[in-house]
# Entry
Amino acid sequence: MEQHRSKTLITEANDEERQYLSQALDERLTLTIAPGLLSEIDAQNLGEVEILVPFIHSKIGAAQMDLMPHLKLIATRSTGYDHIDLKTATERGIAVSNVPGYGENAVAEHTFALMLALSRKILPASARTQRGNYTLEGLRGFDLYGKTLGVIGAGAIGLHVIRIAKGFGMNVLTYDVVQNRLLAEILGFRYTSLDELLSQSDIITLHAPSIPATYHIINRETLAKMKPHALLINTARGSLVDTEALAWALDRGILGGAGLDTLEGEEFLQNEEELLQEAGAEEKLKVLLRNHILQRRENVVMTPHIAFNTDEALRRILDTTIENIQAFLAGTPEHLVVSR
# Structure
């Protein structure tokens, strides 16, 4: 009897990913691999999909699941899964797997790239030099050595950030609801309250997941408690920061600068024109406008969600995703996430 080949849709895949995933999965699955978002796939082509392999920019809610009545597994190629409606997936018996660890060091290193870009004014210095202007006026930075780094979220990525910070000779304060006192002693950091971290840190970096409890954890109230002219770094999720409040803090000099690899509403950036046609999209458009205004500030460094984007990390993402699919087909699913 011929083995059943599950119909599988992979979205947001470039040529390299297409080739790698095809080579590993083509014998067991009927693959459709698309470069675009799930929303760009004709609905008529979704009815038979049993396994969906998206990236973070494809929103998967009840409406999308309605179009895939045979869907059994969503194997996202990411650690975060806030683009997936877990509650609805659970109710419908759809398993959801993620890639729990692939780029801890990559994201931590990018965190310091943003930090150094701000502390040493790398971008304005580079732009000035390219114009043939070699003056030093306005380009004085500051040492990381001896400064206090506040780490919000001491999971795998946060701990890598702490290790690097200690190498720079920084003092480290950490806020997390789950605390590991042994690691704190070994690595030389101190757990503290959120209020103390905000008021004592020269630089604050975010490494918390996107869950209801962390939504807009950085807002006007928390920003007002920060040390004057502190820096804010976000390589976690855009929803952790209230964009309007961030602009307010920068305008008033409460913050000295911000390094952002992820933005609130970044899922709309690739389809801004579609929002113009969407009813009730005013708030989403306001968020995008605020992001565009932030882009023009000299003391804001933005990158397009690339903290994870290294050769090594991307290969680990693909390998873990392949393992997740194969384990699910074997009846021993791995790295499942559940609705909280």
About this structure: The first strand starts at residue 6 and ends at 10. Residues 29 and 95 are 17 Å apart (CA to CA).
